[in-house]
Protein backbone atom coordinates (compact mmCIF):
# COMPACT_ATOMS: atom_id res chain seq x y z
CA UNK A 1 0.00 0.00 0.00
CA UNK A 2 2.81 2.60 0.70
CA UNK A 3 4.18 1.88 -2.78
CA UNK A 4 0.79 2.38 -4.37
CA UNK A 5 0.30 5.66 -2.50
CA UNK A 6 3.77 6.89 -3.51
CA UNK A 7 3.16 6.08 -7.17
CA UNK A 8 -0.21 7.72 -6.96
CA UNK A 9 1.32 10.93 -5.62
CA UNK A 10 3.90 11.03 -8.43
CA UNK A 11 1.21 10.46 -11.06
CA UNK A 12 -1.02 13.05 -9.46
CA UNK A 13 1.70 15.71 -9.56
CA UNK A 14 2.39 14.95 -13.20
CA UNK A 15 -1.27 15.11 -14.21
CA UNK A 16 -1.93 18.35 -12.34
CA UNK A 17 1.08 20.14 -13.85
CA UNK A 18 -0.07 22.78 -16.38
CA UNK A 19 0.50 21.88 -20.03
CA UNK A 20 0.50 24.34 -22.94
CA UNK A 21 -0.33 27.15 -20.53
CA UNK A 22 -3.60 25.49 -19.50
CA UNK A 23 -4.95 26.01 -15.99
CA UNK A 24 -5.04 22.65 -14.16
CA UNK A 25 -8.26 21.41 -12.61
CA UNK A 26 -7.71 21.04 -8.88
CA UNK A 27 -9.77 18.08 -7.73
CA UNK A 28 -9.14 15.00 -5.64
CA UNK A 29 -8.12 12.31 -8.12
CA UNK A 30 -7.18 8.66 -7.68
CA UNK A 31 -4.87 8.19 -10.62
CA UNK A 32 -3.91 4.59 -9.95
CA UNK A 33 -7.04 2.48 -9.61
CA UNK A 34 -7.05 -1.17 -8.73
CA UNK A 35 -9.51 -3.65 -7.32
CA UNK A 36 -8.28 -5.04 -4.01
CA UNK A 37 -10.27 -8.20 -4.59
CA UNK A 38 -8.61 -10.19 -7.36
CA UNK A 39 -11.08 -12.64 -8.90
CA UNK A 40 -9.62 -15.49 -10.92
CA UNK A 41 -12.92 -16.80 -12.27
CA UNK A 42 -14.01 -14.14 -14.72
CA UNK A 43 -17.14 -16.02 -15.76
CA UNK A 44 -18.92 -15.97 -12.40
CA UNK A 45 -20.99 -12.79 -12.70
CA UNK A 46 -22.74 -13.37 -9.38
CA UNK A 47 -19.56 -13.62 -7.32
CA UNK A 48 -20.02 -10.27 -5.58
CA UNK A 49 -23.79 -9.89 -5.75
CA UNK A 50 -25.93 -9.99 -2.63
CA UNK A 51 -29.11 -12.01 -3.13
CA UNK A 52 -32.32 -11.59 -1.18
CA UNK A 53 -31.79 -15.03 0.37
CA UNK A 54 -28.78 -13.57 2.21
CA UNK A 55 -30.47 -10.42 3.47
CA UNK A 56 -34.05 -9.26 3.87
CA UNK A 57 -33.51 -6.11 1.81
CA UNK A 58 -30.62 -4.48 0.00
CA UNK A 59 -29.04 -1.42 1.61
CA UNK A 60 -28.92 1.16 -1.17
CA UNK A 61 -26.73 4.24 -1.71
CA UNK A 62 -27.70 6.67 -4.50
CA UNK A 63 -25.02 9.16 -5.60
CA UNK A 64 -26.07 12.38 -7.32
CA UNK A 65 -29.33 11.82 -5.50
CA UNK A 66 -30.75 15.34 -5.85
CA UNK A 67 -30.95 15.15 -9.64
CA UNK A 68 -33.97 14.37 -11.80
CA UNK A 69 -33.89 10.64 -11.12
CA UNK A 70 -32.35 10.21 -7.68
CA UNK A 71 -35.23 11.55 -5.57
CA UNK A 72 -37.81 9.57 -7.56
CA UNK A 73 -35.83 6.35 -7.34
CA UNK A 74 -35.30 6.81 -3.59
CA UNK A 75 -39.06 7.19 -3.12
CA UNK A 76 -39.73 4.01 -5.13
CA UNK A 77 -37.04 1.97 -3.36
CA UNK A 78 -38.08 3.16 0.10
CA UNK A 79 -41.61 1.95 -0.52
CA UNK A 80 -40.22 -1.43 -1.47
CA UNK A 81 -37.29 -1.89 0.93
CA UNK A 82 -38.05 0.47 3.83
CA UNK A 83 -37.25 4.13 4.46
CA UNK A 84 -33.95 3.59 6.27
CA UNK A 85 -32.54 1.12 3.71
CA UNK A 86 -32.12 3.78 0.99
CA UNK A 87 -29.60 6.61 1.44
CA UNK A 88 -29.51 9.63 -0.85
CA UNK A 89 -26.21 11.47 -1.26
CA UNK A 90 -25.10 14.61 -3.07
CA UNK A 91 -22.79 17.63 -2.72
CA UNK A 92 -25.72 20.05 -2.54
CA UNK A 93 -27.98 20.94 0.35
CA UNK A 94 -31.24 18.99 -0.01
CA UNK A 95 -34.60 20.77 0.12
CA UNK A 96 -36.42 20.23 3.40
CA UNK A 97 -38.96 17.78 1.98
CA UNK A 98 -36.17 15.54 0.65
CA UNK A 99 -34.12 15.85 3.84
CA UNK A 100 -37.06 14.75 5.99
CA UNK A 101 -38.20 11.95 3.65
CA UNK A 102 -35.32 9.61 4.53
CA UNK A 103 -31.57 9.29 5.13
CA UNK A 104 -29.35 11.84 3.38
CA UNK A 105 -25.53 12.03 3.43
CA UNK A 106 -23.17 14.61 1.99
CA UNK A 107 -20.87 12.83 -0.43
CA UNK A 108 -18.40 14.00 -3.07
CA UNK A 109 -17.71 11.21 -5.58
CA UNK A 110 -14.21 12.60 -6.10
CA UNK A 111 -13.45 11.91 -2.43
CA UNK A 112 -12.61 8.20 -2.48
CA UNK A 113 -12.00 7.92 1.25
CA UNK A 114 -15.34 9.49 2.17
CA UNK A 115 -17.22 7.29 -0.30
CA UNK A 116 -15.57 4.18 1.09
CA UNK A 117 -16.46 5.16 4.65
CA UNK A 118 -20.11 5.66 3.68
CA UNK A 119 -20.27 2.22 2.06
CA UNK A 120 -18.59 0.48 5.01
CA UNK A 121 -20.34 2.33 7.83
CA UNK A 122 -23.80 1.87 6.31
CA UNK A 123 -23.28 -1.72 5.12
CA UNK A 124 -24.26 -0.78 1.56
CA UNK A 125 -25.04 -3.66 -0.80
CA UNK A 126 -26.49 -1.79 -3.83
CA UNK A 127 -24.95 1.36 -5.30
CA UNK A 128 -26.83 3.49 -7.85
CA UNK A 129 -24.44 5.99 -9.43
CA UNK A 130 -26.35 8.98 -10.84
CA UNK A 131 -23.64 11.65 -10.40
CA UNK A 132 -22.85 13.14 -13.82
CA UNK A 133 -22.79 16.35 -15.84
CA UNK A 134 -25.31 16.15 -18.68
CA UNK A 135 -24.73 16.81 -22.38
CA UNK A 136 -25.11 20.58 -22.84
CA UNK A 137 -23.64 21.44 -19.43
CA UNK A 138 -20.72 19.07 -20.03
CA UNK A 139 -19.82 20.77 -23.30
CA UNK A 140 -19.68 24.09 -21.46
CA UNK A 141 -17.22 22.70 -18.88
CA UNK A 142 -15.33 19.73 -20.31
CA UNK A 143 -12.71 19.60 -17.54
CA UNK A 144 -15.34 19.35 -14.81
CA UNK A 145 -17.35 16.79 -16.83
CA UNK A 146 -14.23 14.68 -17.27
CA UNK A 147 -13.52 14.77 -13.54
CA UNK A 148 -17.08 14.02 -12.41
CA UNK A 149 -18.10 11.58 -15.14
CA UNK A 150 -14.85 9.61 -15.48
CA UNK A 151 -12.72 10.03 -12.35
CA UNK A 152 -15.81 9.74 -10.15
CA UNK A 153 -16.78 6.55 -11.97
CA UNK A 154 -13.35 5.02 -11.29
CA UNK A 155 -13.83 5.63 -7.57
CA UNK A 156 -17.25 4.02 -7.69
CA UNK A 157 -16.01 0.97 -9.61
CA UNK A 158 -13.14 0.31 -7.21
CA UNK A 159 -15.34 0.65 -4.13
CA UNK A 160 -18.07 -1.54 -5.62
CA UNK A 161 -15.58 -4.26 -6.57
CA UNK A 162 -13.80 -4.13 -3.21
CA UNK A 163 -16.98 -4.42 -1.15
CA UNK A 164 -18.99 -6.80 -3.33
CA UNK A 165 -21.74 -4.34 -4.31
CA UNK A 166 -24.34 -4.67 -7.00
CA UNK A 167 -23.67 -1.53 -9.07
CA UNK A 168 -26.02 0.35 -11.39
CA UNK A 169 -24.66 3.09 -13.66
CA UNK A 170 -27.04 4.64 -16.21
CA UNK A 171 -25.97 5.22 -19.77
CA UNK A 172 -27.76 7.28 -22.40
CA UNK A 173 -28.74 7.86 -26.00
CA UNK A 174 -25.72 10.17 -25.95
CA UNK A 175 -23.42 7.12 -25.92
CA UNK A 176 -24.03 6.84 -29.68
CA UNK A 177 -22.73 9.12 -32.42
CA UNK A 178 -23.40 10.20 -36.01
CA UNK A 179 -21.94 6.97 -37.42
CA UNK A 180 -24.25 4.77 -35.32
CA UNK A 181 -27.39 3.36 -36.94
CA UNK A 182 -30.12 5.77 -35.85
CA UNK A 183 -33.48 4.20 -36.64
CA UNK A 184 -33.49 1.87 -34.84
CA UNK A 185 -30.29 1.79 -32.80
CA UNK A 186 -29.43 -1.72 -31.54
CA UNK A 187 -27.66 -2.59 -28.29
CA UNK A 188 -24.41 -3.47 -30.08
CA UNK A 189 -23.19 -1.22 -32.87
CA UNK A 190 -20.64 1.49 -33.64
CA UNK A 191 -20.41 4.05 -30.80
CA UNK A 192 -18.48 7.22 -31.57
CA UNK A 193 -20.13 10.03 -29.58
CA UNK A 194 -18.99 13.62 -30.03
CA UNK A 195 -19.73 15.00 -26.57
CA UNK A 196 -17.75 14.53 -23.37
CA UNK A 197 -20.98 13.27 -21.81
CA UNK A 198 -21.34 10.56 -24.46
CA UNK A 199 -17.65 9.63 -24.34
CA UNK A 200 -17.82 9.28 -20.55
CA UNK A 201 -20.88 7.02 -20.81
CA UNK A 202 -19.23 4.70 -23.35
CA UNK A 203 -16.27 4.62 -20.98
CA UNK A 204 -18.61 3.67 -18.13
CA UNK A 205 -20.23 0.88 -20.15
CA UNK A 206 -16.88 -0.63 -21.12
CA UNK A 207 -15.26 -0.24 -17.70
CA UNK A 208 -18.29 -1.81 -16.02
CA UNK A 209 -18.21 -4.75 -18.40
CA UNK A 210 -14.45 -5.11 -17.85
CA UNK A 211 -14.84 -5.11 -14.06
CA UNK A 212 -17.61 -7.68 -14.43
CA UNK A 213 -15.37 -10.07 -16.38
CA UNK A 214 -12.13 -9.25 -14.55
CA UNK A 215 -13.31 -9.01 -10.95
CA UNK A 216 -16.81 -10.50 -10.97
CA UNK A 217 -18.44 -7.13 -10.28
CA UNK A 218 -22.24 -7.33 -10.59
CA UNK A 219 -22.45 -4.32 -12.92
CA UNK A 220 -25.78 -3.39 -14.51
CA UNK A 221 -26.47 -0.56 -16.93
CA UNK A 222 -29.43 0.80 -18.90
CA UNK A 223 -29.18 3.26 -21.76
CA UNK A 224 -31.88 5.77 -20.91
CA UNK A 225 -33.68 7.72 -23.62
CA UNK A 226 -34.71 11.31 -22.87
CA UNK A 227 -36.45 11.24 -19.47
CA UNK A 228 -39.52 13.42 -18.87
CA UNK A 229 -40.50 14.31 -15.32
CA UNK A 230 -43.01 16.81 -13.93
CA UNK A 231 -41.54 17.29 -10.47
CA UNK A 232 -38.04 18.44 -11.43
CA UNK A 233 -36.67 21.31 -13.51
CA UNK A 234 -34.55 20.74 -16.64
CA UNK A 235 -30.95 19.96 -15.77
CA UNK A 236 -28.94 20.94 -18.83
CA UNK A 237 -29.74 18.08 -21.20
CA UNK A 238 -30.48 18.20 -24.92
CA UNK A 239 -33.91 16.61 -24.42
CA UNK A 240 -34.96 19.21 -21.80
CA UNK A 241 -37.35 20.87 -24.26
CA UNK A 242 -39.73 17.94 -23.70
CA UNK A 243 -40.00 18.93 -20.02
CA UNK A 244 -39.96 22.71 -20.43
CA UNK A 245 -42.86 22.74 -22.89
CA UNK A 246 -45.27 21.55 -20.21
CA UNK A 247 -44.22 24.16 -17.65
CA UNK A 248 -44.48 26.96 -20.23
CA UNK A 249 -47.77 25.68 -21.62
CA UNK A 250 -49.42 25.87 -18.19
CA UNK A 251 -47.76 29.07 -16.92
CA UNK A 252 -47.43 31.34 -19.97
CA UNK A 253 -49.13 29.65 -22.93
CA UNK A 254 -45.98 30.21 -25.00
CA UNK A 255 -43.02 27.95 -25.70
CA UNK A 256 -39.82 28.54 -27.65
CA UNK A 257 -38.15 25.27 -28.64
CA UNK A 258 -34.37 25.11 -29.15
CA UNK A 259 -34.49 22.08 -31.49
CA UNK A 260 -35.87 21.82 -35.01
CA UNK A 261 -39.52 20.72 -35.20
CA UNK A 262 -38.67 17.45 -36.99
CA UNK A 263 -35.90 16.30 -34.58
CA UNK A 264 -36.92 12.79 -33.58
CA UNK A 265 -35.54 11.34 -30.33
CA UNK A 266 -36.47 8.41 -28.08
CA UNK A 267 -38.25 9.45 -24.87
CA UNK A 268 -39.66 7.93 -21.68
CA UNK A 269 -41.80 9.06 -18.76
CA UNK A 270 -39.91 8.98 -15.48
CA UNK A 271 -42.16 6.36 -13.85
CA UNK A 272 -41.25 3.88 -16.59
CA UNK A 273 -37.56 4.77 -16.23
CA UNK A 274 -37.49 4.24 -12.46
CA UNK A 275 -39.43 0.98 -12.69
CA UNK A 276 -37.02 -0.30 -15.37
CA UNK A 277 -34.09 0.53 -13.09
CA UNK A 278 -35.60 -1.40 -10.18
CA UNK A 279 -36.52 -4.34 -12.40
CA UNK A 280 -33.06 -4.73 -13.90
CA UNK A 281 -31.47 -4.47 -10.44
CA UNK A 282 -33.78 -7.17 -9.08
CA UNK A 283 -33.41 -9.43 -12.10
CA UNK A 284 -31.60 -12.73 -11.43
CA UNK A 285 -28.15 -13.03 -12.97
CA UNK A 286 -28.91 -16.00 -15.24
CA UNK A 287 -31.10 -14.33 -17.92
CA UNK A 288 -28.88 -11.24 -18.22
CA UNK A 289 -26.94 -11.94 -21.39
CA UNK A 290 -25.59 -8.37 -21.43
CA UNK A 291 -24.36 -5.83 -18.91
CA UNK A 292 -25.81 -2.83 -20.80
CA UNK A 293 -29.31 -2.70 -22.33
CA UNK A 294 -31.25 -0.17 -24.38
CA UNK A 295 -34.69 0.66 -22.99
CA UNK A 296 -37.35 2.64 -24.81
CA UNK A 297 -40.99 3.71 -24.59
CA UNK A 298 -41.79 6.18 -27.38
CA UNK A 299 -40.14 8.32 -30.03
CA UNK A 300 -41.40 11.73 -31.13
CA UNK A 301 -40.42 15.14 -32.55
CA UNK A 302 -40.96 18.58 -30.94
CA UNK A 303 -43.73 19.21 -33.47
CA UNK A 304 -45.51 15.96 -32.60
CA UNK A 305 -45.24 16.71 -28.90
CA UNK A 306 -46.54 20.26 -29.39
CA UNK A 307 -49.49 18.98 -31.42
CA UNK A 308 -50.39 16.53 -28.64
CA UNK A 309 -50.17 19.25 -25.99
CA UNK A 310 -52.32 21.57 -28.13
CA UNK A 311 -55.08 18.96 -28.10
CA UNK A 312 -55.39 19.76 -24.39
CA UNK A 313 -54.33 23.43 -24.53
CA UNK A 314 -55.32 24.78 -27.99
CA UNK A 315 -54.04 28.30 -27.25
CA UNK A 316 -50.44 27.19 -26.76
CA UNK A 317 -48.12 29.15 -29.08
CA UNK A 318 -44.94 27.33 -30.16
CA UNK A 319 -41.97 28.96 -31.88
CA UNK A 320 -38.51 27.66 -32.75
CA UNK A 321 -35.18 29.31 -31.97
CA UNK A 322 -32.56 26.68 -32.76
CA UNK A 323 -29.62 26.22 -30.39
CA UNK A 324 -26.84 25.09 -32.73
CA UNK A 325 -24.95 23.20 -30.01
CA UNK A 326 -27.96 21.23 -28.81
CA UNK A 327 -29.17 20.64 -32.37
CA UNK A 328 -25.80 19.18 -33.38
CA UNK A 329 -25.92 16.89 -30.35
CA UNK A 330 -29.48 15.77 -31.11
CA UNK A 331 -28.62 15.11 -34.78
CA UNK A 332 -25.91 12.68 -33.69
CA UNK A 333 -28.21 10.69 -31.39
CA UNK A 334 -30.56 7.76 -32.10
CA UNK A 335 -34.02 8.50 -33.44
CA UNK A 336 -35.39 5.27 -32.00
CA UNK A 337 -34.04 2.59 -29.66
CA UNK A 338 -34.20 -1.15 -30.32
CA UNK A 339 -34.82 -2.52 -26.82
CA UNK A 340 -35.88 -6.04 -27.83
CA UNK A 341 -33.09 -7.63 -25.75
CA UNK A 342 -34.34 -5.97 -22.56
CA UNK A 343 -37.89 -7.10 -23.33
CA UNK A 344 -36.78 -10.67 -24.03
CA UNK A 345 -34.14 -11.13 -21.29
CA UNK A 346 -35.79 -9.61 -18.22
CA UNK A 347 -39.30 -8.73 -19.34
CA UNK A 348 -39.08 -4.98 -19.82
CA UNK A 349 -42.38 -3.36 -20.85
CA UNK A 350 -43.30 0.35 -20.80
CA UNK A 351 -46.63 1.78 -19.63
CA UNK A 352 -46.65 5.34 -21.03
CA UNK A 353 -47.06 6.30 -24.69
CA UNK A 354 -47.28 9.91 -25.94
CA UNK A 355 -50.97 10.59 -25.15
CA UNK A 356 -50.64 9.17 -21.60
CA UNK A 357 -47.42 11.13 -21.11
CA UNK A 358 -49.00 14.46 -22.09
CA UNK A 359 -52.11 13.94 -19.98
CA UNK A 360 -50.07 12.93 -16.92
CA UNK A 361 -47.66 15.87 -17.23
CA UNK A 362 -50.41 18.46 -17.69
CA UNK A 363 -52.41 17.06 -14.80
CA UNK A 364 -49.39 17.19 -12.51
CA UNK A 365 -48.08 20.64 -13.50
CA UNK A 366 -51.56 22.15 -13.80
CA UNK A 367 -52.50 20.94 -10.34
CA UNK A 368 -49.19 22.19 -8.92
CA UNK A 369 -49.70 25.60 -10.57
CA UNK A 370 -53.23 25.97 -9.20
CA UNK A 371 -52.00 25.14 -5.69
CA UNK A 372 -49.25 27.77 -6.00
CA UNK A 373 -51.76 30.40 -7.14
CA UNK A 374 -54.07 29.59 -4.25
CA UNK A 375 -51.23 29.90 -1.77
TrEMBL record:
It comes from the Eukaryota. It catalyses: L-threonine + NAD(+) = (2S)-2-amino-3-oxobutanoate + NADH + H(+). Residues 60-295 form the NAD-dependent epimerase/dehydratase domain. One of its GO terms (biological process) is L-threonine catabolic process. Pathway: Amino-acid degradation; L-threonine degradation via oxydo-reductase pathway; glycine from L-threonine: step 1/2. GO terms for molecular function: L-threonine 3-dehydrogenase activity. It is an enzyme of class 1 (oxidoreductase). Transmembrane segments: none annotated. Its EC number is 1.1.1.103. Gene3D superfamilies: NAD(P)-binding Rossmann-like Domain. Pfam families: Epimerase (PF01370). Belongs to the NAD(P)-dependent epimerase/dehydratase family. Catalyzes the NAD(+)-dependent oxidation of L-threonine to 2-amino-3-ketobutyrate, mediating L-threonine catabolism. This is L-threonine 3-dehydrogenase, mitochondrial.
Amino acid sequence: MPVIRALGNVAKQALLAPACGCQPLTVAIRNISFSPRQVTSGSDASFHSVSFSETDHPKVLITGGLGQLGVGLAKLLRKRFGKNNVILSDIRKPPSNVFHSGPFIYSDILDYKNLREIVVNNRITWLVHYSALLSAVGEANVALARAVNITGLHNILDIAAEHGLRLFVPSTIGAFGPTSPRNPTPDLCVQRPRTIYGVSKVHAELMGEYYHHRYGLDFRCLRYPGIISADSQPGGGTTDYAVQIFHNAVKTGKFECNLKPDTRLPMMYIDDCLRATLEVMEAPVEPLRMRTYNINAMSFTPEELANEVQKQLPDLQVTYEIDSVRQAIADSWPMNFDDSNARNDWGWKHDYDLPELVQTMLNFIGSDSRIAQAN
